[in-house]
From TrEMBL:
Domain of life: Bacteria
Keyword Transcription: no
SUPFAM superfamilies membership: PLP-dependent transferases (SSF53383)
Underlying gene: hisC
InterPro entries per record: Aminotrans_II_pyridoxalP_BS, Aminotransferase_I/II_large, HisP_aminotrans, PyrdxlP-dep_Trfase, PyrdxlP-dep_Trfase_major, PyrdxlP-dep_Trfase_small
Keywords (A to Z) from UniProt: Amino-acid biosynthesis, Aminotransferase, Histidine biosynthesis, Pyridoxal phosphate, Transferase
Protein name (database record): Histidinol-phosphate aminotransferase
Enzyme type, top EC level: transferase
Residue positions where N6-(pyridoxal phosphate)lysine is found in the record: K237
Keyword Cell division among UniProt keywords: no
Pathway entry: Amino-acid biosynthesis; L-histidine biosynthesis; L-histidine from 5-phospho-alpha-D-ribose 1-diphosphate: step 7/9
Amino acid sequence: MSTTDIGIDDLPVREELRGKSPYGAPQLDVPVQLNTNENPYPLPEALVERITERVREAARGLNRYPDRDAVELRTELAGYLTRTGKYPVGPENVWAANGSNEVIQQLLQTFGGPGRTAIGFEPSYSMHPLIARGTGTDWISGPRREDFTVDERAAVDAIAAHRPDVVFVTSPNNPTGTAVAPETVVALYDAAQRARADAAGALVVVDEAYVEFSHRPSLLPLLEGRPNLVVSRTMSKAFGAAGLRLGYLAAHRAVVDALQLVRLPYHLSAVTQATALAALEHTDTLLKYVEQLKEERDRLVAGLRGIGYEVTDSDANFVQFGRFDGEGGAHAAWQQILDRGVLVRDNGVPGRLRVTAGTPEENDAFLDAVRALKSSVG
Ligand code: PMP
C-alpha cells in the first residue's frame, strides 16, 4: 500500500457518513466483562457435541449453496415462538438473518430508505439510528420520560408530527431495561397508521431482543390483525449464542415476502443454519440459564439499591444505575470500575452506566467494585 496518509474523509464516501464513528463497544481484555449484554454461560457440552454433529453433516454439502429460504430453521423458530409467545406463528410468518441487526437492516432497506423517516424513543438501542443512517433513512429521536419509560401521549404526538415510515419500540429497552405496556404499543401502532393513512400506514418494529428476561409476557399476540407490526428477536441473549449471529422476526406473511426483495441470496450460511437448529433442540436447557440470570439481575438491582445507587427497574439481563453527576460524570465512574477489573458500559446516558448480569461470582466482583467506588466518593 502507498504510505500516503489518507483517512475516510479523503475518500469519495457518502456525504452523510463523513465525520461519523462506527458502533464501538470497547472489547477489552478484562477479568470481568459485563458490558455487552451477553449471556455469561458457555453452551452446555451436550449442545456443543450436537452442533459438531450438525455442522459435520452440513460440511459434506458445502459445495452447494445453503437452503435460501432456511425453511427448516424458520419452522423450528416458529415452533419456539408458538410455544413460548402464547401466539401461533408458522414458518411463513418468520424470517431469519445474521443477528437481529441484519433483520433490522433488511426492514429498513424495505420500509425505510432515502426520503423516508424512522423514529425511536431515546435513549434506546444505538444501532437503530446507525442502521437508519446506513440505509439512507432519516432518523427522528423521540422522547422518553425522566424515569426512562415511554410517555404514550408525547410519543403519539411525535408520531403525528413527524409522520414516520418506521417506528421502533424496544421492549425491554436497551440500555434502560424498561418494558413497554401492550396498550402503549397499540396506541403507537394506531397513531402511526393514522399519521400515514396517505401511504399504506407505517411499519412498527417491536424489538424484543431481551424479552425472555422480562417479568412481562412477549408482545407477540399483538400481531393479530396488525399487518404492519413486526416483532424482532435474537438468539444472542437468551440462547447464549451471540457468536452464532442469528436474529429473527415474526410478522404477517406479506412482510416476510417483502423482505425477499432486499435480502441477499443465501445470506444465512449452511453452517449458521445447522448451528441454530442444534441450539433450538436444546431450548429447555438454555432457558434454565435464563431463569438463573433473571435472579441474578434482580440481585444486582437490590444490591445496587442497597449500596445507595439509583437503579432503573429492569426487565432485561442488564441494569442501568447511577447517578454519577460529579466531576467526570458517568465516564469517570466507568474508568474507576474498570480500574477495579470490571468492564461495564457507558452508553452516553448522562449520569448513568449499564451492567450486564453475569455469573454470581462476576456479579459479586462488580458489586464489590461499585461499593468501593461509593465509599471512595462518599
Ligand atoms: N436489539 C437490541 C435492543 C439489542 O440490544 C441488540 C444487541 N445489543 C440487538 C438488537 C442486536 O443483537 P444481534 O444482532 O446480536 O441479534
